[in-house]
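Standup notes
- DV: blocked on the single-chain target, sequence here:
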Amino acid sequence: MDDNRRQHPPPKRVVVCGGGIIGVCTAYFLAKKGAEVTLIERSSIAGAASGKAGAFLALHMCDDGPLSSLARASFGLHCSLAEELDGPQSYGYRPLTTLTISVGESELPSKSSILPSWVDGRVKTGEIIGTTETTAQIHPQLFTHALLAKAVTEYGVQVVTAKVEGIAVEKEGVVVKVDGGGVIGGDAVVLALGPWTSKLPELSSIVRVYGKKVHSVVLEPRDGDAITPHALFATYYPAHGMGPIDSDFFPRPTRDVYICGPSVEVETPDGSESVFPDPESVQILKSVAGIVSSYLAKNNVTVKSEEAGLMPCTDDELPVMGEIPGMKRCYVASGHGYWGILFGPASGVAMAELVLDGHATIVDLDCFSPTRFTAKKV
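- DV (later): unblocked, structure below
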């Protein structure tokens, strides 16, 4: 028995804090590499922004900067995970054609051949910015649940419902303090708490991750079969007063259409259950939908949801992934912003490699390291 233990050391015990897409992807790939993983989530899996996002996937739209390698690696992983998890059936994975349009009450309906037939409103055609080879979609909540289910059943991930209140480094490893005075120990910890990451006292002076509130509606058209898989990035020009408003349209295989609008920085509340949609913002999205398409007009749809989520963002608009300065074996993975659903799988692989192997090979994490914040303070 002793010889066998020397040849096969016990797996590293890792605690992952946060049940959004980044935390679940990290837990999945850690466990797949042999770690014993405990995932802590205070409320529900994908209960915050990860469950309320448009979940648009793009191979190339981050190509002009440091996010390119992360996006491209993760797009490929989404494709392979869709095969592994039967994504088309289990969480709505499918390729899309993606267009830009401008929208306004004064526009005449466009006759452009690149527009799908259901876009019959007052729009001006832009251009095709993505094909079925380069853009796709998933249902983010269903994806996160499907991945976690496999992590639990095949790789033994343990899920604990608790609120994380702090972390501490000890000689034997790390300790995660949870509400009610409980503690959960491990050899390492990964903090993937979205905009709540910086609320931990140990991180508040090191990393600033804040929330941007994004509103969304999901409309079910009466004639849902007419809605083809064309994603729209729309710019709406109101007739009076306000400046242009960006809104994104993502039809889903479930015969409904997800629509979201611009984001605004807000104070992060104590929990995701305290994030509520603003009626005025929701009404704007519904109005724009009716201008874009008669199929999405008020009298032709059922409103399935009106929601708001907090995107976790950083001041330099880059994710923060790496070991926390001054805290050995404590890692952070947050701040993924608009592209969090796209970045999930590659971020999970990168964090698993960093924690278990000491460095990431799937992408270079140097530009995402939290040390970039502490260096500015020196």
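- Follow-up: The radius of gyration is 22 Å.
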